[in-house]
Amino acid sequence: MADGEPIRAAGALLWRDGRDPGSPEVALVHRPKYDDWSFPKGKAKAGEHVLRAVVREVSEETGFAPRLGRRLPSVGYLKDDRPKRVDYWAARCVGSAPGHAVPNDEVDRLDWLPVAEAERRLTYSHDVDLLREFGTGPLHTWPLVILRHATAGEKRLWKEPDELRPLDARGRADAVALAGLLAGYGPARPISSATARCLDTVLPYARRTGAVVVTDPAFTLGETGAERACDRLLELAGDGVPALVCTHGEIVSDLITGLCRRLGEKVPDEPSLRKGAFWTAHLSGGEQGVPSIAALERHAP
Length: 301
Description:
Blueprint: E1 7-16, E2 25-31, E3 36-38, E4 41-43, H1 50-62, E5 64-79, E6 82-96, E7 109-114, H2 115-121, H3 125-136, E8 142-148, H4 169-182, E9 189-192, H5 196-209, E10 214-215, H6 226-238, E11 243-247, H7 249-262, E12 278-284, E13 292-299
Parallel strand pairs: 1-6, 8-11, 9-10, 9-11
Antiparallel strand pairs: 1-2, 1-4, 2-3, 2-7, 5-6, 8-12, 12-13
């Protein structure tokens, strides 16, 4: 890493249900080196995706498995005269992580605290601001992932029916990587365009989670249109079940634009995706069964 390059790090406000409904407890860790209390976080490894980094760091520092929820504001500050950026998520504790953490030189104590008590315990003002931001949004959310299929070679060189065009070597590698990244959001039902390249993209995820991939013509190129695709996406968004939709570049922008407009969210300046990239809309319950978008994030594979 070059001297002037920002330090990349990731962390989470790990929470669990408290004694009173709607009153969560959050995890704070104590670092003996600095004698401070903060949220679990740590530096990303060279080339490590931020979603993989946050799951790994939180698991290592707390011994608990996080399920990523809505994206929270990033925090920036200087570390040894170098800029450092920490990307944060709200993350629900869903059980113990493999290799349960033990006290060590980096983290020697973890406490679960109600939000008000955690605010008094935190050492840094930017962590207090983050905790307050966490408190302003919905506690329970579910993910709706919109994924563009991974690379599938040159269309002009494929002489057989286009729906049979498979992923190329890079696309297969990205599909395997995507399975690990998307697992950070927890299990979701995979729904795919009825083409080989889309099915191949979600297959490693389905094998990892034990889910059954369902094909849907509403997301299949040549069988659908913008209105039909958006109507189907809204149906999925409204039933409160995590979902992963794999489709085509020609459809992605319409899906994101339609989802945001119908749910009252600002449409991103550039809603399109490169191959293998995905949008994650974190949804929360709304009035009359219509959800709202609590957060929207985009990631490359």
